[in-house]
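Please fill in the sequence for the structure shown.

STRUCTURE ENCODING:
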């Protein structure tokens, strides 16, 4: 089921069903562990993060950026599992973006009590490519506004298996995730996992 939530933004409810996705997350995290990055201001980000693919999103006292190496190990990020790349390409194509080939997959892990404040994603060199996001595990309330910080925001519940594609006029929209409610999911336990596929370079 395709749900248009604004110009350039589409929710594909239940599109991600493949158990390989969570197996892939587990395999990535064995090599590149989930960790709390520091912000440039010296605070810890509440969401735990890791990456796979050629480039990974990182943050430290020097700023936010994409890097080919995991700063914890000095090694390249683990390769993007085939099931990840295939899902991202299929979802983008369903939303009208044919030929999406992500080079970066950020994996976010939320536990109850954790949120992600309103922000824009502007660290990518290729703003013409969409972003594909996959929600797994505990449900979350997603906030989605306009390209101006003051634009009104709407809220959408995102459940296990929901995929959202953001591109074109939605690419620079302000967005965030409300504080995760307590609960347990059969596949992830007390956690929500979000995969975010991007063309960073
Ligand atoms: C709307 N992650 O990692 S994914 C992020 O659920 C991030 O973990 C959230 O925002 C999460 O940067 C939301 C959905 C998403 C991703 C990118 C967007 C929504 C977006 C870019 C533009 C507009
Ligand atoms: Fe974001």
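FILLED IN BY: designer on duty
SEQUENCE:
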């Amino acid at each position: 089921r395709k749900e248009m939530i604004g110009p350039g933004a589409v929710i594909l409810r239940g599109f991600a069903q493949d158990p390989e996705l969570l197996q892939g997350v587990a395999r990535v995290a064995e090599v590149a562990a989930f960790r709390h990055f520091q912000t440039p201001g010296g605070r810890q980000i509440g969401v735990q993060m890791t990456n796979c693919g050629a480039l990974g999103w990182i943050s430290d006292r020097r700023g936010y950026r994409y890097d080919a190496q995991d700063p914890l190990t000095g090694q390249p990020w683990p390769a993007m599992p085939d099931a990840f790349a295939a899902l991202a390409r299929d979802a983008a194509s369903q939303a009208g973006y044919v030929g999406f080939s992500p080079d970066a997959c950020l994996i976010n892990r939320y536990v109850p009590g954790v949120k992600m404040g309103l922000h824009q994603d502007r660290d990518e060199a290729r703003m013409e490519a969409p972003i594909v996001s996959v929600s797994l595990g505990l449900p979350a309330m997603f906030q989605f506004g306009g390209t101006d910080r003051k634009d009104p925001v709407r809220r959408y519940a995102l459940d296990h298996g929901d995929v959202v594609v953001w591109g074109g006029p939605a690419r620079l929209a302000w967005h965030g995730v409300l504080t995760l409610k307590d609960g347990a999911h059969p596949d992830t336990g007390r956690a929500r996992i979000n995969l975010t596929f991007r063309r960073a370079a």
